[in-house]
Amino acid sequence: VLSKLLVPGQQKTDSCLCKINSSIWTFPAVQFMEVTRQVQICEDNLNEFEEKVRNTNAELPMMEATLQNISASLKTFGYLHTSGLYSALHLRQLNQELEDIHQSVNETHMQNPNKETHNLLSELNKAKNDVQRMYKDDFFNLETMKKRLHDLNNRAQSCKTIPNDFRSTCHQRIMTRISSPSITKLNSISKSYISGAWGRDAQLSSKKHYWEHCLVSGHKHGNTIRMYNSYEDFMANRNYKDEQIASSYSDKNAVQGSGTILYDNTVFYQCYSTAEICSFNITTKVTKRMKLDGAGIDNKFPFCYYSCRDWTDIDLEADQDAVWVIYATEENHGNIVVSRLDPLALNITHTWKTQLFKRSVTSTFMMCGVLYATRFVNTYQEEVFYAFDTTTGQEINTLSLPFEKVSAGIANLNYNPVDGKLYLYNDAYLLAYDTFF
């Protein structure tokens, strides 16, 4: 029997002794415990799922009742669609926008008649006839008409009177190259202050004042600007004066966001927690305010290409004899709006609407009446990829002007017409570049 089972053994006296290894029949305790654990997990998941199903079944009648209430509420407005009034409301809005643009162009034409204003008036009259035809034929192509109005509005803004010396200083419209950094240093306060702005006074006849503004309250608010009388003092962090813009970080005139600029010894910035522009004259200590209608604030439309930089909804820039404000509105679908400000009266003189989504941009700056936008390439490189020329109302999407940086985040980028440099607040670092046309 043993030989048939192939179990070796030996005979001792009257007995047959065999060695058998029984480990192969050991009960798999470890595997059993794992299976038990998996069964328990499965049971727990099933219980959780059953609980969710019970809760959902209980909530379904409530959800159904809510939907019925909403449907009942909307039913009263059904006549807007069935009687064509909904479309008529859109046409009335288009007609009003056309009238506003026509009035603006007509005023410009009366002051300074030229070929462009004459052509614009002809195109506006044709657009008005097309809208009247929509009323008559009940045929609508609202998106096409809105784009048409968008282009007509930008051309109308570009036709408005802009000082001749402004355009004459910009014989070449579009920038072609940006140098390596000619200045690189940390801000003078702390490496932890990663948000702010810096540069020099952008007014052409101003003294050689360099300035530095750090947001020191949650990278959101500030109330002082540091002033230097010379480049040497700025580089050595000496002989500076901290000018107080507001009494505290939470004062109504405090600075919100990093979109600050200095023009003609006056600080222009977003007022604390409002869609308003403030100007603070360092000499007279007088603060003016202006409402920026429709502007998104409190991180509604921040610069956001790679990672959102908080509190960048409103960006102030200075160029030649004007101050510019870059922002976004719901009415323009979150796309960038550019407004030209009179720095003394602090009112808007021109407004252009671009088709560039503000959250797709890292930063913007103005140069010779042209808006430039940048995007993130990597931690150490940025690229100017877009331009909008306010003189022609044309958008350029084919730019590729790379420039270096020392860190990923950009808080502020501004151009200075006095020395032709770009000034970058790159996290806590201050960089400057030469520009070329």
TrEMBL record:
Which residues belong to any copy of the Olfactomedin-like domain?
A: 169-437
| SMART domains, per database record | OLF (SM00284)
Pfam families, per the entry: OLF (PF02191)
- UniProt-listed GO biological process terms: signal transduction
Which InterPro entries does this one have?
Olfac-like_dom, Olfactomedin-like_domain
Q: Which residues form a coiled coil?
A: 32-66
Cellular compartment(s): Secreted
Question: One GO term of the cellular component aspect?
Answer: extracellular space
Kindly state which keywords UniProt assigns to this record, in alphabetical order: Coiled coil, Secreted
- Say which domain of life the source belongs to: Eukaryota
PANTHER family under this entry? OLFACTOMEDIN-4-LIKE, OLFACTOMEDIN-RELATED
Name of the protein this chain belongs to: Olfactomedin-4-like
